[in-house]
UniProtKB/TrEMBL annotation:
Location relative to the cell: Membrane
A GO cellular component annotation in the UniProt record: membrane
Official protein name in the record: NnrU protein
Start and end residues of each NnrU domain: 3-181
């Protein structure tokens, strides 16, 4: 559990620093250069992910609550929505006209969906912490960036492409999830 918590702390620091200390971050970029800063930033994120994965997989099972039997179905539905939102954050479609932070909202939906089916302590710590981080990041980004300027409307074709990519990505992510952990698909 210690490695999991260290990974979460590192994740929070690395992701929150640019949001709440922009002048300090900009000074660091000026000193190091954009490329080296991004390199260090990326390595720190990778280290946080490695620590979280190793810590989560090595944690003892301690039940906090017992998930409902129908939870897997809700999780599958929420995960389609999370994949859609994550894709929308990189899309040129219309979702960003209605959702200011689709990627952060995707993380929050992902975290909630995993809390629906995982009631052990390590899951509560991991998914709960990342869900809370997404909420904090939304508020911190809003405070840093000020008023939201909605993008101009985009062709509906872009939205249809996003739906197609979402379906494919959901299946691929589900298959990979089944290789490294429990299958998210019924009967898998």
């Amino acid at each position: 559990m210690t490695l999991l918590i260290l990974g979460l702390i590192l994740w929070w620091i690395v992701h929150t620093y640019p949001l709440v200390a922009k002048p300090s971050r900009d000074a660091l970029v000026a000193k190091l250069g954009e490329g080296p800063y991004k390199g260090v930033y990326s390595l720190a994120i990778l280290a946080s992910l490695v620590l979280m994965v190793i810590g989560y997989r090595g944690a003892e099972i301690a039940h906090v609550y017992f998930p409902p039997a129908w939870g897997m179905h809700l999780t599958d539905l929420l995960m389609i929505f999370a994949v859609f939102l994550f894709g929308a954050s990189h899309s040129k479609g219309n979702v960003k006209r209605y959702v200011r932070h689709p990627q952060l909202l995707a993380v929050l939906v992902w975290a909630i969906s995993h809390l629906v089916v995982n009631g052990d302590l390590a899951s509560v710590v991991l998914f709960g912490s990342l869900g809370v981080w997404a909420i904090v990041a939304i508020f911190a980004t809003n405070a840093r960036d000020g008023a939201w300027v909605k993008p101009a409307p985009a062709p509906r074709k872009k939205d249809l492409i996003l739906v197609g990519i979402t379906v494919v990505a959901y299946v691929v992510v589900g298959l990979i999830h089944g290789l490294v952990g429990p299958s998210p698909f019924p009967g898998g």
